[in-house]
Write a structure and sequence with these properties.
Keywords: ATP-binding, Ligase, Mitochondrion, Nucleotide-binding, Protein biosynthesis. The protein is of the alpha/beta class. It contains 18 helices and 11 strands.
Protein backbone atom coordinates (compact mmCIF):
# COMPACT_ATOMS: atom_id res chain seq x y z
CA UNK A 1 0.00 0.00 0.00
CA UNK A 2 2.85 2.33 0.83
CA UNK A 3 4.45 1.67 -2.57
CA UNK A 4 1.14 2.25 -4.33
CA UNK A 5 0.60 5.55 -2.54
CA UNK A 6 4.16 6.58 -3.42
CA UNK A 7 3.49 5.75 -7.08
CA UNK A 8 0.58 8.20 -6.92
CA UNK A 9 2.60 10.93 -5.23
CA UNK A 10 5.48 10.54 -7.72
CA UNK A 11 3.22 10.39 -10.77
CA UNK A 12 5.04 13.44 -12.16
CA UNK A 13 8.11 11.22 -12.73
CA UNK A 14 6.11 9.28 -15.37
CA UNK A 15 7.93 6.09 -14.35
CA UNK A 16 4.90 3.82 -14.80
CA UNK A 17 2.76 3.26 -17.88
CA UNK A 18 0.29 0.93 -16.14
CA UNK A 19 -0.29 0.52 -12.40
CA UNK A 20 -1.96 -2.79 -11.53
CA UNK A 21 -3.36 -1.66 -8.19
CA UNK A 22 -6.15 -4.22 -7.85
CA UNK A 23 -4.10 -7.28 -8.71
CA UNK A 24 -1.20 -6.02 -6.58
CA UNK A 25 -3.41 -5.68 -3.51
CA UNK A 26 -4.87 -9.13 -4.16
CA UNK A 27 -1.37 -10.63 -4.46
CA UNK A 28 -0.32 -8.84 -1.26
CA UNK A 29 -3.31 -10.29 0.62
CA UNK A 30 -2.48 -13.81 -0.55
CA UNK A 31 1.13 -13.26 0.52
CA UNK A 32 0.05 -12.12 3.97
CA UNK A 33 -2.06 -15.27 4.40
CA UNK A 34 0.95 -17.43 3.49
CA UNK A 35 3.09 -15.61 6.06
CA UNK A 36 0.49 -16.19 8.75
CA UNK A 37 0.62 -19.89 7.93
CA UNK A 38 4.42 -19.70 7.93
CA UNK A 39 4.59 -20.93 4.34
CA UNK A 40 6.10 -18.21 2.13
CA UNK A 41 6.66 -19.24 -1.51
CA UNK A 42 10.22 -17.92 -1.57
CA UNK A 43 12.49 -15.05 -0.55
CA UNK A 44 10.55 -12.60 -2.71
CA UNK A 45 7.16 -13.38 -1.20
CA UNK A 46 5.30 -10.10 -0.64
CA UNK A 47 8.04 -7.94 -2.15
CA UNK A 48 6.72 -5.17 -4.45
CA UNK A 49 8.37 -5.24 -7.88
CA UNK A 50 7.88 -3.42 -11.19
CA UNK A 51 8.44 -4.71 -14.73
CA UNK A 52 9.52 -2.85 -17.86
CA UNK A 53 6.68 -2.63 -20.34
CA UNK A 54 8.35 -4.82 -22.96
CA UNK A 55 7.83 -8.01 -20.93
CA UNK A 56 4.56 -9.81 -21.58
CA UNK A 57 2.19 -9.93 -18.61
CA UNK A 58 -1.04 -11.93 -18.75
CA UNK A 59 -4.05 -9.72 -18.04
CA UNK A 60 -2.01 -6.49 -17.88
CA UNK A 61 -1.45 -4.33 -20.95
CA UNK A 62 1.99 -4.58 -22.63
CA UNK A 63 2.66 -1.56 -24.86
CA UNK A 64 6.44 -1.22 -25.42
CA UNK A 65 5.57 2.51 -25.16
CA UNK A 66 4.35 2.36 -28.77
CA UNK A 67 1.10 3.11 -30.58
CA UNK A 68 1.67 -0.22 -32.29
CA UNK A 69 0.83 -2.13 -29.09
CA UNK A 70 -1.49 0.26 -27.25
CA UNK A 71 -4.24 -1.84 -25.72
CA UNK A 72 -2.43 -5.15 -26.33
CA UNK A 73 -2.96 -7.68 -23.54
CA UNK A 74 -0.76 -10.73 -23.76
CA UNK A 75 -2.28 -14.19 -23.20
CA UNK A 76 0.80 -15.33 -21.25
CA UNK A 77 3.49 -14.19 -18.82
CA UNK A 78 7.14 -13.83 -19.77
CA UNK A 79 9.16 -16.56 -18.01
CA UNK A 80 10.89 -14.03 -15.74
CA UNK A 81 7.54 -12.50 -14.74
CA UNK A 82 6.13 -15.97 -14.04
CA UNK A 83 9.16 -16.86 -11.93
CA UNK A 84 8.72 -13.71 -9.83
CA UNK A 85 5.01 -14.44 -9.32
CA UNK A 86 5.81 -18.07 -8.44
CA UNK A 87 8.06 -16.68 -5.69
CA UNK A 88 5.13 -14.63 -4.36
CA UNK A 89 6.41 -11.24 -5.55
CA UNK A 90 3.78 -8.50 -5.90
CA UNK A 91 3.62 -6.96 -9.38
CA UNK A 92 2.86 -3.25 -9.01
CA UNK A 93 2.83 -2.35 -12.67
CA UNK A 94 4.64 -1.81 -15.95
CA UNK A 95 7.32 0.85 -16.33
CA UNK A 96 8.02 3.42 -19.02
CA UNK A 97 10.72 3.12 -21.70
CA UNK A 98 11.88 4.36 -25.09
CA UNK A 99 9.58 2.99 -27.80
CA UNK A 100 10.42 -0.72 -28.29
CA UNK A 101 13.45 -0.08 -26.03
CA UNK A 102 15.24 1.87 -28.78
CA UNK A 103 16.98 4.76 -27.09
CA UNK A 104 19.21 5.84 -24.23
CA UNK A 105 17.13 8.50 -22.51
CA UNK A 106 13.65 7.05 -21.93
CA UNK A 107 12.42 10.13 -23.76
CA UNK A 108 11.08 8.58 -26.96
CA UNK A 109 8.10 6.55 -25.80
CA UNK A 110 4.58 7.47 -26.78
CA UNK A 111 3.70 8.10 -23.10
CA UNK A 112 6.27 10.88 -22.75
CA UNK A 113 9.71 11.11 -21.10
CA UNK A 114 10.60 9.73 -17.66
CA UNK A 115 11.97 12.23 -15.17
CA UNK A 116 14.95 11.34 -13.03
CA UNK A 117 13.96 11.31 -9.30
CA UNK A 118 17.30 12.96 -8.50
CA UNK A 119 16.01 16.12 -10.27
CA UNK A 120 13.80 16.55 -7.20
CA UNK A 121 16.39 15.56 -4.59
CA UNK A 122 17.79 17.93 -2.03
CA UNK A 123 21.31 17.01 -3.26
CA UNK A 124 20.60 18.28 -6.80
CA UNK A 125 18.48 21.27 -5.80
CA UNK A 126 21.17 22.62 -3.50
CA UNK A 127 23.70 22.54 -6.34
CA UNK A 128 21.56 23.71 -9.25
CA UNK A 129 20.88 27.42 -9.39
CA UNK A 130 18.40 28.59 -12.06
CA UNK A 131 20.25 30.66 -14.68
CA UNK A 132 17.63 33.39 -14.49
CA UNK A 133 14.49 34.25 -12.58
CA UNK A 134 12.42 33.64 -15.66
CA UNK A 135 13.72 30.08 -15.90
CA UNK A 136 11.00 27.79 -14.69
CA UNK A 137 12.35 25.73 -11.80
CA UNK A 138 10.60 22.76 -13.38
CA UNK A 139 12.54 22.96 -16.62
CA UNK A 140 15.91 21.83 -15.33
CA UNK A 141 14.90 18.23 -14.58
CA UNK A 142 17.34 15.61 -15.85
CA UNK A 143 16.79 12.43 -17.84
CA UNK A 144 16.92 8.91 -16.37
CA UNK A 145 18.95 7.39 -19.17
CA UNK A 146 17.49 4.46 -21.05
CA UNK A 147 15.90 2.53 -22.32
CA UNK A 148 14.84 1.08 -18.93
CA UNK A 149 14.42 4.55 -17.39
CA UNK A 150 11.01 3.82 -15.87
CA UNK A 151 12.33 0.82 -13.96
CA UNK A 152 15.40 2.74 -12.72
CA UNK A 153 13.26 5.70 -11.62
CA UNK A 154 10.80 3.36 -9.88
CA UNK A 155 13.55 1.73 -7.80
CA UNK A 156 15.32 5.03 -7.15
CA UNK A 157 12.13 6.75 -5.91
CA UNK A 158 11.23 3.88 -3.50
CA UNK A 159 8.03 2.94 -5.35
CA UNK A 160 9.26 -0.67 -5.56
CA UNK A 161 12.14 -2.72 -4.18
CA UNK A 162 13.33 -4.27 -7.43
CA UNK A 163 12.46 -3.90 -11.09
CA UNK A 164 13.10 -5.73 -14.33
CA UNK A 165 14.66 -3.93 -17.25
CA UNK A 166 16.09 -5.27 -20.47
CA UNK A 167 19.67 -4.78 -21.65
CA UNK A 168 20.65 -4.93 -25.33
CA UNK A 169 23.40 -2.33 -25.47
CA UNK A 170 23.34 -0.95 -21.92
CA UNK A 171 19.62 -0.31 -21.38
CA UNK A 172 19.73 -1.47 -17.74
CA UNK A 173 23.17 -0.23 -16.70
CA UNK A 174 22.85 3.23 -18.27
CA UNK A 175 19.68 4.31 -16.40
CA UNK A 176 20.98 2.58 -13.25
CA UNK A 177 24.04 4.85 -13.38
CA UNK A 178 21.96 8.00 -13.91
CA UNK A 179 19.44 7.11 -11.19
CA UNK A 180 21.92 5.94 -8.55
CA UNK A 181 20.81 2.28 -8.39
CA UNK A 182 22.39 -1.10 -9.02
CA UNK A 183 21.85 -2.40 -12.56
CA UNK A 184 22.85 -5.97 -13.41
CA UNK A 185 23.09 -7.36 -16.94
CA UNK A 186 23.55 -11.13 -16.51
CA UNK A 187 25.48 -13.40 -18.88
CA UNK A 188 23.60 -14.02 -22.12
CA UNK A 189 21.64 -17.26 -21.70
CA UNK A 190 21.55 -17.25 -17.90
CA UNK A 191 18.02 -15.79 -17.77
CA UNK A 192 15.20 -16.68 -20.14
CA UNK A 193 14.17 -14.18 -22.83
CA UNK A 194 10.86 -15.94 -23.46
CA UNK A 195 8.14 -13.27 -23.35
CA UNK A 196 10.56 -10.35 -23.58
CA UNK A 197 9.51 -8.59 -26.79
CA UNK A 198 12.72 -8.89 -28.82
CA UNK A 199 14.90 -6.05 -30.00
CA UNK A 200 18.15 -7.87 -30.88
CA UNK A 201 17.79 -11.58 -30.14
CA UNK A 202 21.52 -12.24 -30.03
CA UNK A 203 22.16 -9.53 -27.41
CA UNK A 204 18.95 -9.00 -25.38
CA UNK A 205 19.11 -9.98 -21.71
CA UNK A 206 16.57 -9.27 -18.96
CA UNK A 207 18.24 -6.86 -16.52
CA UNK A 208 17.79 -6.43 -12.77
CA UNK A 209 17.52 -3.05 -11.01
CA UNK A 210 17.76 -2.85 -7.21
CA UNK A 211 18.99 -0.51 -4.49
CA UNK A 212 21.90 -2.71 -3.39
CA UNK A 213 24.06 -5.52 -4.78
CA UNK A 214 22.71 -8.14 -2.34
CA UNK A 215 19.20 -7.57 -3.69
CA UNK A 216 20.37 -8.04 -7.27
CA UNK A 217 21.84 -11.41 -6.23
CA UNK A 218 18.55 -12.43 -4.57
CA UNK A 219 16.51 -11.56 -7.67
CA UNK A 220 19.05 -13.24 -9.96
CA UNK A 221 18.74 -16.42 -7.88
CA UNK A 222 14.99 -16.42 -8.49
CA UNK A 223 15.25 -15.87 -12.25
CA UNK A 224 18.30 -17.76 -13.49
CA UNK A 225 18.35 -21.19 -15.05
CA UNK A 226 17.19 -23.25 -18.02
CA UNK A 227 13.88 -22.52 -19.71
CA UNK A 228 12.52 -25.09 -22.20
CA UNK A 229 10.78 -22.17 -23.95
CA UNK A 230 14.07 -20.40 -24.72
CA UNK A 231 16.65 -22.51 -26.54
CA UNK A 232 19.40 -19.96 -25.84
CA UNK A 233 19.29 -20.52 -22.06
CA UNK A 234 21.93 -22.65 -20.32
CA UNK A 235 21.20 -26.35 -19.96
CA UNK A 236 22.71 -26.77 -16.49
CA UNK A 237 20.87 -26.05 -13.30
CA UNK A 238 21.77 -22.73 -11.77
CA UNK A 239 23.44 -23.07 -8.38
CA UNK A 240 21.97 -20.64 -5.88
CA UNK A 241 24.56 -18.64 -3.98
CA UNK A 242 24.78 -16.37 -0.97
CA UNK A 243 27.10 -13.44 -1.51
CA UNK A 244 30.07 -13.75 0.85
CA UNK A 245 31.44 -10.67 2.60
CA UNK A 246 34.77 -10.21 0.92
CA UNK A 247 37.42 -9.10 3.38
CA UNK A 248 40.56 -9.87 1.42
CA UNK A 249 40.89 -8.61 -2.15
CA UNK A 250 44.60 -9.40 -2.45
CA UNK A 251 43.96 -12.42 -4.68
CA UNK A 252 41.95 -10.30 -7.13
CA UNK A 253 43.24 -9.01 -10.41
CA UNK A 254 41.34 -5.96 -11.69
CA UNK A 255 41.79 -4.93 -15.33
CA UNK A 256 41.49 -1.30 -16.46
CA UNK A 257 40.83 -1.27 -20.23
CA UNK A 258 42.65 1.73 -21.69
CA UNK A 259 40.26 1.96 -24.67
CA UNK A 260 37.43 2.92 -22.30
CA UNK A 261 39.09 6.29 -21.85
CA UNK A 262 36.70 7.29 -24.61
CA UNK A 263 36.28 10.67 -26.30
CA UNK A 264 33.68 12.68 -24.41
CA UNK A 265 34.41 11.04 -21.04
CA UNK A 266 33.97 13.77 -18.43
CA UNK A 267 36.99 14.66 -16.30
CA UNK A 268 34.85 14.02 -13.24
CA UNK A 269 34.15 10.41 -14.19
CA UNK A 270 37.76 9.87 -15.22
CA UNK A 271 38.90 11.02 -11.76
CA UNK A 272 36.35 8.76 -10.09
CA UNK A 273 37.49 5.80 -12.19
CA UNK A 274 41.13 6.38 -11.13
CA UNK A 275 40.07 6.74 -7.51
CA UNK A 276 38.21 3.42 -7.68
CA UNK A 277 41.26 1.72 -9.17
CA UNK A 278 43.38 3.13 -6.33
CA UNK A 279 40.83 1.87 -3.82
CA UNK A 280 41.41 -1.69 -5.05
CA UNK A 281 45.19 -1.20 -5.25
CA UNK A 282 45.39 0.14 -1.70
CA UNK A 283 43.33 -2.79 -0.45
CA UNK A 284 45.92 -5.18 -1.90
CA UNK A 285 44.35 -6.14 -5.25
CA UNK A 286 46.45 -6.33 -8.39
CA UNK A 287 45.35 -3.53 -10.73
CA UNK A 288 46.63 -3.67 -14.30
CA UNK A 289 46.00 -1.72 -17.46
CA UNK A 290 44.72 -4.01 -20.21
CA UNK A 291 43.91 -3.56 -23.87
CA UNK A 292 40.73 -4.48 -25.74
CA UNK A 293 41.99 -3.32 -29.14
CA UNK A 294 38.77 -3.76 -31.13
CA UNK A 295 36.70 -1.58 -28.79
CA UNK A 296 36.88 1.36 -31.18
CA UNK A 297 35.02 -0.58 -33.87
CA UNK A 298 32.38 -1.90 -31.54
CA UNK A 299 29.83 0.92 -31.74
CA UNK A 300 29.71 0.80 -35.58
CA UNK A 301 29.56 -2.98 -35.50
CA UNK A 302 26.79 -2.84 -32.90
CA UNK A 303 24.80 -0.39 -35.03
CA UNK A 304 24.86 -2.70 -38.06
CA UNK A 305 23.93 -5.86 -36.13
CA UNK A 306 21.33 -4.10 -33.99
CA UNK A 307 19.46 -2.51 -36.89
CA UNK A 308 19.61 -5.71 -38.96
CA UNK A 309 18.02 -7.76 -36.18
CA UNK A 310 15.53 -4.97 -35.44
CA UNK A 311 14.40 -4.98 -39.09
CA UNK A 312 13.79 -8.71 -38.87
CA UNK A 313 12.04 -8.56 -35.48
CA UNK A 314 9.77 -5.67 -36.32
CA UNK A 315 8.36 -7.48 -39.36
CA UNK A 316 5.88 -9.25 -37.05
CA UNK A 317 3.99 -6.01 -36.40
CA UNK A 318 1.91 -5.91 -39.56
CA UNK A 319 -1.57 -5.14 -38.26
CA UNK A 320 -2.89 -8.63 -38.97
CA UNK A 321 -2.72 -10.69 -35.81
CA UNK A 322 -2.39 -8.27 -32.91
CA UNK A 323 -1.66 -4.66 -32.08
CA UNK A 324 -2.65 -1.61 -34.07
CA UNK A 325 -4.36 -1.98 -37.45
CA UNK A 326 -4.86 0.93 -39.83
CA UNK A 327 -8.26 1.67 -41.36
CA UNK A 328 -6.62 1.88 -44.78
CA UNK A 329 -8.29 -0.91 -46.74
CA UNK A 330 -7.37 -0.35 -50.38
CA UNK A 331 -5.16 -3.45 -50.35
CA UNK A 332 -3.27 -5.67 -47.93
CA UNK A 333 -0.01 -3.90 -48.84
CA UNK A 334 -1.44 -0.44 -48.19
CA UNK A 335 -2.87 -1.67 -44.87
CA UNK A 336 0.59 -3.01 -43.86
CA UNK A 337 2.30 0.23 -44.84
CA UNK A 338 -0.24 2.50 -43.15
CA UNK A 339 -0.25 0.36 -39.99
CA UNK A 340 3.51 0.54 -39.64
CA UNK A 341 3.63 4.26 -40.43
CA UNK A 342 0.97 5.01 -37.79
CA UNK A 343 2.21 2.47 -35.24
CA UNK A 344 5.97 3.09 -35.15
CA UNK A 345 7.73 6.34 -34.30
CA UNK A 346 10.48 7.79 -36.50
CA UNK A 347 13.24 6.15 -34.44
CA UNK A 348 11.87 2.64 -34.95
CA UNK A 349 11.16 3.27 -38.64
CA UNK A 350 14.68 4.63 -39.10
CA UNK A 351 16.24 1.52 -37.56
CA UNK A 352 14.06 -0.76 -39.70
CA UNK A 353 15.19 1.11 -42.84
CA UNK A 354 18.89 0.97 -41.88
CA UNK A 355 18.65 -2.70 -41.00
CA UNK A 356 16.96 -3.63 -44.25
CA UNK A 357 19.61 -1.68 -46.14
CA UNK A 358 22.40 -3.66 -44.45
CA UNK A 359 20.57 -6.90 -45.24
CA UNK A 360 20.10 -6.20 -48.97
CA UNK A 361 21.66 -8.92 -51.09
CA UNK A 362 24.34 -6.55 -52.44
CA UNK A 363 25.23 -5.25 -48.94
CA UNK A 364 24.90 -8.40 -46.83
CA UNK A 365 28.54 -9.53 -47.17
CA UNK A 366 30.01 -6.06 -46.72
CA UNK A 367 27.96 -5.06 -43.70
CA UNK A 368 26.20 -7.85 -41.84
CA UNK A 369 28.78 -10.63 -42.33
CA UNK A 370 31.67 -8.25 -41.71
CA UNK A 371 30.02 -6.94 -38.53
CA UNK A 372 29.60 -10.54 -37.31
CA UNK A 373 33.33 -11.10 -37.85
CA UNK A 374 34.20 -7.91 -35.95
CA UNK A 375 31.87 -9.02 -33.18
CA UNK A 376 33.89 -12.23 -32.87
CA UNK A 377 37.11 -10.19 -32.61
CA UNK A 378 35.54 -8.05 -29.87
CA UNK A 379 34.45 -11.17 -27.95
CA UNK A 380 37.96 -12.64 -28.37
CA UNK A 381 39.53 -9.49 -26.89
CA UNK A 382 37.66 -10.24 -23.66
CA UNK A 383 38.58 -13.94 -23.80
CA UNK A 384 42.28 -13.01 -24.09
CA UNK A 385 42.16 -10.53 -21.22
CA UNK A 386 40.32 -12.93 -18.89
CA UNK A 387 42.65 -15.71 -20.04
CA UNK A 388 45.66 -13.62 -18.95
CA UNK A 389 44.57 -13.87 -15.32
CA UNK A 390 42.35 -10.78 -15.00
CA UNK A 391 39.24 -11.51 -12.90
CA UNK A 392 37.12 -8.39 -13.35
CA UNK A 393 37.24 -5.33 -15.58
CA UNK A 394 36.53 -1.90 -14.08
CA UNK A 395 35.21 0.79 -16.43
CA UNK A 396 32.95 3.86 -16.38
CA UNK A 397 29.26 3.15 -17.15
CA UNK A 398 28.42 6.50 -18.75
CA UNK A 399 30.40 9.40 -20.20
CA UNK A 400 28.90 11.94 -17.78
CA UNK A 401 26.16 12.37 -15.20
CA UNK A 402 22.55 12.81 -16.38
CA UNK A 403 21.91 15.78 -18.65
CA UNK A 404 18.83 18.04 -18.46
CA UNK A 405 16.01 16.92 -20.76
CA UNK A 406 16.09 20.19 -22.71
CA UNK A 407 19.79 19.55 -23.44
CA UNK A 408 19.30 15.86 -24.27
CA UNK A 409 16.70 16.37 -26.99
CA UNK A 410 18.96 18.71 -28.96
CA UNK A 411 20.60 15.60 -30.45
CA UNK A 412 18.67 12.92 -32.32
CA UNK A 413 18.10 9.45 -30.89
CA UNK A 414 20.71 7.77 -33.08
CA UNK A 415 23.50 10.17 -32.15
CA UNK A 416 22.60 9.91 -28.46
CA UNK A 417 22.44 6.11 -28.49
CA UNK A 418 25.81 5.90 -30.24
CA UNK A 419 27.36 8.14 -27.57
CA UNK A 420 25.65 6.56 -24.59
CA UNK A 421 26.14 2.89 -25.52
CA UNK A 422 29.84 3.26 -26.13
CA UNK A 423 30.96 1.99 -22.71
CA UNK A 424 28.26 -0.63 -22.24
CA UNK A 425 27.47 -2.40 -25.50
CA UNK A 426 30.69 -4.41 -25.88
CA UNK A 427 29.56 -6.57 -22.92
CA UNK A 428 26.37 -7.38 -24.86
CA UNK A 429 28.28 -8.27 -28.00
CA UNK A 430 30.49 -10.62 -25.98
CA UNK A 431 27.55 -11.89 -23.88
CA UNK A 432 29.36 -11.10 -20.61
CA UNK A 433 27.87 -10.22 -17.21
CA UNK A 434 28.22 -6.57 -16.18
CA UNK A 435 26.94 -4.47 -13.31
CA UNK A 436 26.63 -0.77 -12.58
CA UNK A 437 27.42 0.20 -8.99
CA UNK A 438 26.46 3.73 -7.83
CA UNK A 439 29.72 5.31 -6.77
CA UNK A 440 29.42 9.01 -5.91
CA UNK A 441 27.55 12.22 -6.60
CA UNK A 442 28.85 14.58 -9.25
CA UNK A 443 29.51 18.25 -8.63
CA UNK A 444 25.92 18.86 -9.73
CA UNK A 445 24.62 16.53 -7.02
CA UNK A 446 23.72 13.73 -9.47
CA UNK A 447 24.66 10.03 -9.30
CA UNK A 448 27.65 8.60 -11.14
CA UNK A 449 28.23 4.87 -11.45
CA UNK A 450 31.08 2.59 -12.41
CA UNK A 451 30.79 -0.68 -14.31
CA UNK A 452 32.30 -4.06 -13.48
CA UNK A 453 32.47 -6.65 -16.28
CA UNK A 454 32.98 -10.29 -15.29
CA UNK A 455 33.79 -13.60 -16.91
CA UNK A 456 31.01 -15.51 -18.59
CA UNK A 457 28.65 -17.15 -16.04
CA UNK A 458 30.81 -15.94 -13.12
CA UNK A 459 28.02 -13.81 -11.62
CA UNK A 460 28.95 -14.86 -8.11
CA UNK A 461 32.47 -13.45 -8.41
CA UNK A 462 31.22 -10.30 -10.17
CA UNK A 463 28.57 -9.58 -7.54
CA UNK A 464 30.95 -10.35 -4.68
CA UNK A 465 33.44 -7.77 -5.93
CA UNK A 466 30.63 -5.28 -6.64
CA UNK A 467 29.34 -5.76 -3.09
CA UNK A 468 32.80 -5.13 -1.63
CA UNK A 469 33.10 -1.96 -3.71
CA UNK A 470 29.60 -0.80 -2.76
CA UNK A 471 30.54 -1.14 0.90
CA UNK A 472 33.69 0.95 0.45
CA UNK A 473 32.08 3.84 -1.44
CA UNK A 474 28.98 4.26 0.77
CA UNK A 475 26.83 5.90 -1.88
CA UNK A 476 24.41 8.43 -0.27
CA UNK A 477 20.66 7.87 -0.08
CA UNK A 478 18.51 10.11 -2.25
CA UNK A 479 16.66 12.77 -0.25
CA UNK A 480 13.43 13.25 -2.11
CA UNK A 481 11.95 16.54 -1.02
CA UNK A 482 8.73 16.28 -3.04
CA UNK A 483 7.85 12.84 -1.76
CA UNK A 484 8.78 13.42 1.84
CA UNK A 485 5.83 15.75 2.22
CA UNK A 486 3.45 13.15 0.84
CA UNK A 487 4.60 10.10 2.68
CA UNK A 488 6.82 10.21 5.70
CA UNK A 489 6.46 6.54 6.57
CA UNK A 490 8.38 5.06 3.68
CA UNK A 491 11.52 6.86 4.74
CA UNK A 492 11.61 4.84 7.94
CA UNK A 493 12.90 1.88 5.98
CA UNK A 494 14.49 3.47 2.97
CA UNK A 495 18.00 2.54 4.05
CA UNK A 496 17.15 -1.12 4.28
CA UNK A 497 16.71 -1.50 0.56
CA UNK A 498 17.80 -5.01 1.38
CA UNK A 499 15.20 -7.60 0.44
CA UNK A 500 16.50 -10.08 3.00
CA UNK A 501 15.88 -7.62 5.82
CA UNK A 502 12.38 -6.75 4.71
CA UNK A 503 11.25 -10.16 3.54
CA UNK A 504 11.35 -11.60 7.02
CA UNK A 505 7.84 -11.33 8.47
Amino acid sequence: QRCLSLIKSTKFLNAYITVAEETALKQAEESEKRYRRGQPLGVLDGIPIAVKDNFNTAGIETTCASNMLKGYISPYNATVVQKLLDQGAVLLGKTNLDEFAMGSGSTDGVFGPVRNPWSYSRQYKEKSVPKSHSEDKDSNWVITGGSSGGSAAAVSSFTCFAALGSDTGGSTRNPAAHCGVVGLKPTYGLISRHGLIPLVNSMDVPGILTRCVDDAAVVLGSLAGHDPKDSTTIQDNFKLFELPNLTDVSKLSIGIPKEYHAPGLSSEILALWSKAADLFKNAGAKVIEVSLPHTRYSIVCYHVLCTAEVASNMARFDGLEYGHRSDMNKSTESMYAATRREGFNAVVRGRILSGNYFLLKQNYENYFIKAQKVRRLIANDFVKVFGSGVDILLTPTTLSDAVPYTEFIKEDNRTRSAQDDILTQAANMAGLPAINVPTALSERGLPVGLQFIGRSFQEKQLLTVAKWFEKQVKFPTIQLEEVKRHDHGVFQHQKSGNLKQISKP
